[in-house]
Design goal:
Layout: E1 3-7, H1 8-14, H2 20-30, E2 33-37, E3 43-47, E4 50-54, H3 68-81, H4 86-100, H5 112-120
Length: about 120
């Protein structure tokens, strides 16, 4: 595994701990790049050279969380394949996740490229 994505509960369960820090340490030791989403607490990205904590991108309203994790991963991986810094990749993930929870259904309805450009340029 080169990149691991997990939400907070999955990461804790994987390492059989109640400690988020212990879960992050476990992931850091297990994979070169780990990304943990934390709902309203944003996301944490860790690799061998650093750790980045990114706040959540606020949603206008939360209607349906279906697809939020998948859209986060899609946004992150889009930035990653573009060679963006890891922190920006996580921001892209939070933007995509925020958009999909604002309506019913797991497909984006807004122009995500425009939303990313408004935040990251």
């Amino acid at each position: 595994v080169d990149i691991a994505f997990a939400n907070e509960n999955e990461a804790k369960s994987l390492f059989q701990t109640d400690s988020m820090e212990a879960a992050i340490e476990g992931l850091s030791a297990a994979v070169p790049l780990a990304v943990v989403t934390r709902s309203e607490k944003g996301a944490i990205v860790v690799n061998g050279s650093g750790r980045w904590e990114v706040p959540v991108t606020p949603a206008v309203r939360v209607l349906d969380t279906t697809g939020a994790g998948d859209l986060f991963a899609a946004g992150f991986l889009t930035g990653y394949t573009q060679g963006r810094p890891l922190k920006d990749c996580a921001v892209m993930g939070t933007i995509a996740a925020a958009e999909v929870i604002e309506h019913y259904g797991a497909r984006p309805e807004a122009d995500l490229k425009a939303r990313v450009a408004a935040v990251l340029g």
